[in-house]
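Q: Sequence in, structure out?
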Amino acid sequence: GETLADGWFQSNDLGRIDADGLLMVDGRLDDMMNLCGHKVLPAWIEEAALACPEVTGAAAFALPDEAGLDR
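A: Exactly. Output:
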């Protein structure tokens, strides 16, 4: 794909600046899932699952339902 947009490098990484001013990379734009209109990164679900002491591994992904919508 195109890596330059108006002369700027476009990585498709999603990030934010935290309270300390540090850049935090949360994931990739193409990994974003649209679950019933909610934009969710798999890493958010995986982190929540891994916070449970009984969970030793996690992988989140979307699958289409009968209507073709991601669930």
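The helical segments are 42-50.
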